[in-house]
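Lecture 7, part 2: worked example. A protein chain together with D-malate.
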Amino acid sequence: LQYDGNTYEIPVLEGSEGEKALDISKLRATSGLITLDVGFKNTGSTTSNVTFLDGEKGILRHRGYSIEDLAEKSSFLEVAYLLIYGELPDAQTFENWSSRIMKHSLVHEDIRKIFDGFPSTAHPMGVLSSLVTSLTAFHPESIDPNRDSAAIDLTIVRLLAKLPTLAAWSFKNSQGLPLEYPNAKNDYVSNFMQMMFKNKHMDYDVDPVIMDAMNKLLILHADHEQNCSAATVRVVGSSLSSLYVAVSAGINALWGSLHGGANQAVIEMLETIQADGGNIDKFIAKAKDKNDPFRLMGFGHRVYKNFDPRSRIIKKAADDILDRLGVNDPLLDIAKKLEDIALTDPYFVEKKLYPNVDFYSGIIYKALGFPTEMFTVLFALGRLPGWIAQWKESREMVQPISRPRQVYTGETHRAYPED
Ligand code: MLT
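Predicted complex, written out as structure tokens:
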């Protein structure tokens, strides 16, 4: 940056969220102006054809199809195809594609050796991201800068095929349980459920209510435009690293509590309310307390200023699954009461604090027998098609390497101290 003479004065304006914003009209960069937008909250980092999100109206569409239609009428793998290739597959295309995926669901036996090195205390997300990175070593064509479209497509199919296996293994590791291998005769989601719960619970993998709800849950998490993990996948992919490495970076971004950890925080909040006797009015009053506010988790969204369209669908899935399992979870009652209050109490209505997608998903996962540290892994499994679509799109656009500039605010010239 060049400033007038040697003075180093940065005009600072107070941003609407209390953040500092530079008065860029007074700054001149050597190669154009720089906008200080830490976290890219207001700067479009790319154009994209994958997902449309209107936070004012509460609209979410993938490739032009509404999330409501997709959740109601498609399977998760069909939505994955739509996100990645831009069209809903016809029956024959889908049959060919899904059987190709299922054939690649086994992982190299040497990955098992890496897996065996993890302590059972390792967080499943750490195990998952490490194993996804390791796929580059076993399939080196994925990192070849001259890879052709067939090699790229094989990498995509392999990653989709192997993630459920690695995700289920990361669960088994955390529980100290023996591993299950994939069965290529199963469909995608039932295969995952079988590797997770075989011999443990009722046959989730063949129960139509459970499988329908699981497909919906994964569809609802499939993509959400340029959030932290999707942007990470694009940035890492922009250096021409392999898809495996870029997605592994996305998994790590998702691991953070501000991104993928929200549904775990909701469960912990509901448990706190329950342990305190379940007096919801007390916690609502505390949430409004300006001096020491109780944070209501699972409400509001950085982008949505309206109902998160995913939360309506997920609420219904929660009812269906708990009903099917015959589970009477008091946390669901607390959640529903909280939601009723949030939708009617002027304090919450004015602040547009509607329940978001994370509000009910944890209750479903808990009822199915997933421990809380697996919640982010399930998010990653659902988000994988979105990450792949974002990566593929950015490569097809030949998006340049991401190289953000900075606004330097440190010392200018300093005399080196004399001895
Ligand atoms: C998501 O689904 O990725 C979350 O809602 C986070 C976000 O969109 O920022």
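Residues 50 and 63 are 5 Å apart (CA to CA). The pocket of D-malate is lined by residues 224, 227, 301-303, 357 (CB under 6 Å). Keep this in mind for problem set question 3.
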